[in-house]
């Protein structure tokens, strides 16, 4: 008997207090999270309840009048308290959906964002069969894994300075059965030298906030994403500028450089890409229509 079958009956808990239906638990948790200032509290409440019960979204609709089993109420309470304290949902459930993949998430490693799926899509579109792709600043390995999953690169190397990120990226690639090599070090420094001048796509979502912007972030980001994944330096351009100056030598003529940037600095980043000698620099909007990707290529001659 699984926990949901057991949940049809009890209207009273072991302590003698009334039990709660699944729909009631979602509604109660929504109110609690909203009061705690959690954005999209209703969505998080239903995702947490579904995570605890192992239910699909459809089952939440059809079986919402069933009672939550006692042990599930306790586990839900523990996660609700952490979410109300603004711990990110993805850390509580331990995974995140990214394009067609389900990626593991661990404390101390940047949580991939939906807008970065567009960056991955740009890289996938530009990766020829058997091509060479580099991804510095890979974090959980989200972009590299998506490229390996949806395109057919011959060589894909991702890097990160953080040992935790490297471990997680390797585990995510292995879990999905993807051929991604993950190396540790500063930007392009750990990439295999034999690939210099041969890269079809150099894609990166580097840190791009200015130091002073950290304090204004939501607690989920400020207190849980590692600061070195967020902040580039005093202007926010520091890491992308390095990619713009060091990246072109790794590209083959006509190869693409794709960098996620802050929308407030996107136009300036495109100007800097041209100043770095790249051609055809333009901006790509994210899912919300904000300019978030600088796209440029090494001139053919
Ligand atoms: C914004 S996160 C992006 C992670 C991942 N690509 C994603 O989109 O979810 C930036 C990542 O860059 C790494 N990083 C920051 N500075 C770096 C550097 N100089 N060299 C290599 N990695 C760096 C951080 O550890 C972090 O994992």
What are its keywords?
alpha/beta, Helicase, Ruva Protein, domain 3, seven-stranded mixed beta sheet, 13 helices, binds S-adenosylmethionine
Word description of this protein:
The chain has 301 residues and is α/β, with parallel strands linked by helices. It has two domains: 3-85, Orthogonal Bundle (Helicase, Ruva Protein, domain 3), CATH 1.10.8; 95-297, Vaccinia Virus protein VP39 (Rossmann fold), CATH 3.40.50. Helices cover 39% and strands 19% of the residues. It is built from 13 helices and eleven strands. It has helices at 3-6, 22-35, 41-53, 57-62, 70-84, 89-93, 116-126, 142-150, 163-175, 219-222, 227-230, 238-246, 266-275, and strands spanning 95-98, 101-104, 132-136, 155-160, 181-184, 199-204, 209-210, 231-233, 251-260, 279-285, 291-297. The strands form three sheets. A seven-stranded mixed sheet has the order 5-4-3-6-9-11-10, with helices on both faces. Strands 1-2 form a two-stranded antiparallel sheet. A two-stranded parallel sheet has the order 7-8. Helix 8 links the parallel strand 3 and strand 4 (155-160). Helix 2 crosses helix 3, helix 3 runs antiparallel to helix 5 (70-84) and helix 7 (116-126) packs parallel to helix 8 (142-150). The longest helix is centred in the N-terminal third of the chain and has 15 residues, at 70-84. It is elongated and about 70 Å long. Mean pLDDT is 93; it is low at 1-8. S-adenosylmethionine (SAM) binds at residues 110, 112, 116, 136-140, 142-143, 159-162, 165, 186-187, 205-207, 228-229, 239. S-adenosylmethionine binds next to helix 8, strand 4 and helix 11.
């Amino acid at each position: 008997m699984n926990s949901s079958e057991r949940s049809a009956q009890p209207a009273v808990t072991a302590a003698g207090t009334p039990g709660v239906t699944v729909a009631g638990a979602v509604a109660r948790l929504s109110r609690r999270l909203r009061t705690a200032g959690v954005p999209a509290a209703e969505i998080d409440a239903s995702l947490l309840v579904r995570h605890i019960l192992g239910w699909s979204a459809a089952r939440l609709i059809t079986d919402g009048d069933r009672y939550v089993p006692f042990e599930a109420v306790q586990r839900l309470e523990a996660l609700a308290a952490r979410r109300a304290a603004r711990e990110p949902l993805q850390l509580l459930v331990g995974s995140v959906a990214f394009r067609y993949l389900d990626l593991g998430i661990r404390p101390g490693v940047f949580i991939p964002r939906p807008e970065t799926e567009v960056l991955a899509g740009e890289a996938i579109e530009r990766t020829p069969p058997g091509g060479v792709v580099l991804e510095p600043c890979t974090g959980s390995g989200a972009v590299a894994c998506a490229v390996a999953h949806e395109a057919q690169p011959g060589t894909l190397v991702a890097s990160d300075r953080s040992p935790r990120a490297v471990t997680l990226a390797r585990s995510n690639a292995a879990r999905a059965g993807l051929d991604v090599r993950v190396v540790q070090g500063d930007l392009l420094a750990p990439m295999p030298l034999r690939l210099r001048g041969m890269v079809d796509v150099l894609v990166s979502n580097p840190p791009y906030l200015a130091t002073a912007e950290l304090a204004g972030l939501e607690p989920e980001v400020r207190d849980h994403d590692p600061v070195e994944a967020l902040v580039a330096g005093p202007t926010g351009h520091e890491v992308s500028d390095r990619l713009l100056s060091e990246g072109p030598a790794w590209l083959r003529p006509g190869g693409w450089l794709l960098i996620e940037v802050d929308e407030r600095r996107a136009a300036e980043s495109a100007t800097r890409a041209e100043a770095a000698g790249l051609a055809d620099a333009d901006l790509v909007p994210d899912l919300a229509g904000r300019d978030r990707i600088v796209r440029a290529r090494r001139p053919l001659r």
